[in-house]
Design a protein that fits this description.
The complex is a heterodimer of chains A (264) and B (511). By secondary structure, chain A is an alpha/beta fold. Chain A contains 8 helices and 10 strands. Chain A has 2 domains: 185 residues, 3-Layer(aba) Sandwich (Rossmann fold), CATH 3.40.50.300; 66 residues, no CATH class. Chain A is globular. Chain B is built from 20 helices and 2 strands. The chains are: A alpha/beta (264), B mainly alpha (511). Chains A and B meet through loops of A and helix 16, helix 17 and helix 20 of B.
Chain lengths: 264, 511
């Protein structure tokens, strides 16, 4: 992690990369309108790590999917810089909770898969990008291995590499570490964080969904807390602990308590 | 038919529980069931008719033979279900029963039967479709054999209407059959499976639980797959059995098959006119008979595989296309279920007329109808069981539909597709005997309406109905049965097993 960049990430910039403006979502179930999200607003400023959290099933992942352009909102808008997001865009990449790798493709082919629709790249460029992304994600030498032969942590590395290969400006992550065991998650979390904020990374904003409060305090510059369904924003905290953060310090625990207080 | 179903359930409970609770019985019964469900039962039908009518003459004998055939066709499925259900009762419950000092009978009544109920319900659904197929086939088939007719039954009516040129009667009987099938599905099978829901020990995976189609077809697949692992049945794909274990099982199977062949010979001597002179045939005559059989087998093999490719070309895109569209899928499934349970042979007269009585086309059509549903339903189930996120990939990475089909949907359905193919090819062998030759009996004798040039189903029917009936005919008949069975089992073990292994290793989608 370079100091300059990490400082930059802590100081909020004025131009938000992602703006979520009064987004609501309703489901129709048996002809009854069920609100899922109610006027949720948040901004993801340049060079910040934004976390979204809330009780299980409150609609965190749904919100992330709206930001990704996968699910249309019932009302409100999501903007990437100045442009409204209505469908997935090249500048926004996504890492899934359950990896979603194709078992019949090798690691490299899985990463290449993410570049299939990119007509602006030649096959050689795609290959070079995919190889580089795997390398960055710590998978050099695993190019020809199939997902079935990889551990959970390694699978998620492939998932991250697939997103990185797109050279996105925004990275969305839906509980990327929650299906991994604690130790693996811990290591991967650190590595991915330093990878994302490294000076060579094109990523300008990370939005991640998590329900693990310690993970949130460890990574986030800002955390947005949602209520139980229907989800509203119940609080937004700017976490200004200096990095690297000491998980055993009193300040760390104070932050954990503050987030729990909002969740309860 | 209901009689046969009742018998099947009783028999299955007995066999299944016995196999599950008794090690020695298990090692004998399970391989036997495996072999039995691998062989084309229909081909053995003439033997059964012969034997039963020899014992009980007249209509009662014929009807009994039909009941017996349907019974056999349904039992293996249900018996396996009972076996697996009893086998998978959590150990704690059995301990509980032991601790409370229950007698064997009490255990059967209060534990084993309730535990088996939900599996019986599922397997009854599939067995019913299979049974219906045999019912119609056997009735139509038996009308082909002189003096060996069932006098009443929907299959008989269908053929009779056709022969008499009574088109309306034919259409009505088909409609009647459809309505009966639909009512049966809704009234009995659904109620039964709902009723049996509460007898479950373990929750099934949520997807499977909610989706009627998956419940319906999941099990047939398991069964057709288990055929591939005759020699290492217990653990399925993942278990690496010891060489010794395989070897011992192999010997056991060889013994069972040898016994089966021996029994078939013995059995046939009970049938009047059959096989009385077989032992006097020269080995040259037997060789030449086997030659005829092999040529016919070859024709049938090619026929089945050509139709298979056609069925794939149609079934795969339909299966994927429907499964991708949730609303279409939900609307189509009940419809397809009913349509799919029309047994192909019932359509025989219609197809024969439509195909201008071209034997080859008729045969292809019957085989096609017998196969296509397995492909469609399996592919649909395969796509529907994929985790929801996989469908987001297309949007997230902005793929075109063509890219998504080629890169995601087709590979993702591969293992389900192979499973479906194995079942479909298995079913196709069974349809041969009605597909390759279509005969009806009128006052003037047997009329052959359509037939193919050469094929094992044709050969079986011809030698069975040969007049005068010679020892060569008898020998050919038995050789044909044995060769066909060996081919089917051999193909399962040598080819399908490897394909399946490879495909599940690479294409099965699990996180």
């Amino acid at each position: 992690m370079t100091d300059a960049k990490s400082q930059a990430m802590q100081s909020a910039s004025l131009t938000p990369i992602i703006t979520v403006d009064k987004v609501s979502l309703d489901f129709t179930k048996e002809k009854e309108l069920m609100p899922v999200l109610v006027e949720v607003s948040l901004v993801a400023p340049k060079d910040q790590f934004v976390m979204i959290t809330g009780p299980s099933g409150c609609g965190k992942s749904t919100l992330l999917r709206i930001i990704a352009g996968l699910t249309p909102a019932s009302s409100g808008v999501v903007k990437f810089r100045e442009e409204p997001v209505t469908k997935p865009r090249n500048e926004i990449a996504m890492v899934f909770q359950n990896f979603v790798l194709l078992p019949w493709k090798t690691s490299l082919e899985n990463v290449m898969f993410g570049l299939l629709a990119r007509k602006d790249l030649t096959d050689q460029e795609k290959l070079a990008r995919a190889t580089q992304a795997l390398d960055d994600a710590g998978l050099r030498g695993f190019e020809t291995v199939y997902p079935g032969e990889l551990s959970g942590g390694m699978k998620q590395r492939v998932g991250v590499a697939r997103a990185l290969a797109l050279a996105p400006q925004v990275l969305l992550m839906d509980e990327p570490f929650s299906s991994l065991d604690d130790l693996t998650a811990e290591n991967l979390r650190r590595e991915i964080y330093s990878l994302l904020i490294s000076s060579s990374s094109p990523i300008q904003s990370v939005i991640m969904v998590s329900h693990n409060v310690e993970e949130i305090i460890e990574l986030a510059d800002k955390v947005v807390v949602l209520s139980a369904r229907p989800a509203r924003v119940v609080g937004e905290l700017k976490i200004d602990l200096p990095r690297p953060r000491d998980k055993k310090s009193k300040e760390f625990f104070d932050w954990v308590d503050r987030v729990y207080a909002l969740l309860a | 038919m209901i009689l046969a179903l009742g018998l099947s359930i009783m028999f299955s409970l007995f066999i299944g529980i016995l196999a599950a609770r008794n090690k020695r019985a298990e090692s004998l019964i399970i391989p036997l069931l495996d072999v039995f469900q691998s062989i084309p039962i229909l081909a053995f039908f003439p033997l059964v008719i012969g034997a039963v009518t020899a014992a009980i003459s007249g209509q009662a004998g014929i009807s009994l033979a039909v009941v017996f055939l349907i019974f056999t066709s349904m039992s293996w499925n249900i018996a396996f279900g009972v076996y697996e259900a009893v086998k998978s009762i959590p150990k704690d419950y059995i301990d509980l029963a032991e601790m409370s000092g229950s007698s064997s009978l009490q255990k059967i009544k209060s534990l084993y039967i309730p535990a088996s109920l939900s599996r019986i319900a599922y397997n009854t659904q599939t067995s019913w479709a299979v049974g219906l197929f045999y019912l119609i086939s056997s009735e139509i088939f038996s009308t082909g054999a002189v003096n060996k007719q069932v006098s009443h039954g929907i299959g008989v009516d269908i053929v009779t209407f056709y022969v008499n040129g009574d088109f309306n009667g034919y259409v009505y009987s088909i409609l009647l059959l459809l309505v009966a099938v639909a009512i049966w599905q809704v009234v009995f099978l659904r109620e039964f499976s709902l009723f049996s829901e509460r007898y479950k020990f373990l929750e099934e995976p949520r997807g499977a639980h909610q989706d009627p189609l998956l419940r319906f077809y999941g099990w047939v697949n398991d069964k057709s797959i288990s055929k591939l692992f005759l020699l290492s049945h217990v653990g399925g794909v993942n278990r690496v059995s010891s060489v010794l274990f395989r070897f011992r099982k192999g010997i056991l199977y060889a013994a069972i098959i040898a016994f089966g062949i021996f029994a078939a010979f013995e059995f046939s001597t009970f049938v009047p006119g059959l096989a009385s002179g077989i032992e006097h045939l020269s080995s040259a005559a037997i060789l030449s008979a086997e030659g005829t059989v092999l040529v016919s087998l070859g024709y049938s093999f090619v026929r089945i595989w050509s139709v298979y490719f056609l069925a794939v070309a149609v079934g795969l895109p339909i299966g994927i296309g429907v499964a991708l569209r949730t609303r279409l899928y939900e609307a189509m499934v009940p419809l397809l279920e009913v349509v799919a349970s029309i047994p192909a042979p019932a359509l025989l007269p219609f197809i024969a007329a439509a195909a201008m009585e071209q034997g080859e086309i008729v045969a292809a059509f019957i085989i096609f109808v017998g196969m296509i549903w397995y492909i469609i339903f399996n592919v649909m189930a395969g796509i529907r069981t994929l985790p929801a996120e996989i469908f987001e990939l297309k949007k997230v990475f902005q793929l075109s539909s063509w890219q998504a089909w080629r890169q995601i949907y087709i590979p993702a359905s591969t293992s389900a597709f192979v499973t479906g193919s194995i079942t479909a090819i298995g079913a196709a062998w069974n349809t041969l005997i009605v597909a390759e030759i279509f005969q009806v009996v009128t006052k003037n004798g047997v009329h052959t309406l359509t037939k193919v040039g050469n094929g094992i189903g044709l050969l079986l029917v011809q030698v069975n109905n040969a007049n005068p009936y010679t020892a060569t005919d008898a020998a050919t008949f038995i050789l044909a049965l044995v060769s066909m069975t060996v081919l089917i089992i051999g193909f399962n073990l040598l080819v399908w097993r490897r394909v399946y292994h490879r495909v599940t290793k690479r294409y099965a989608y699990n996180r």
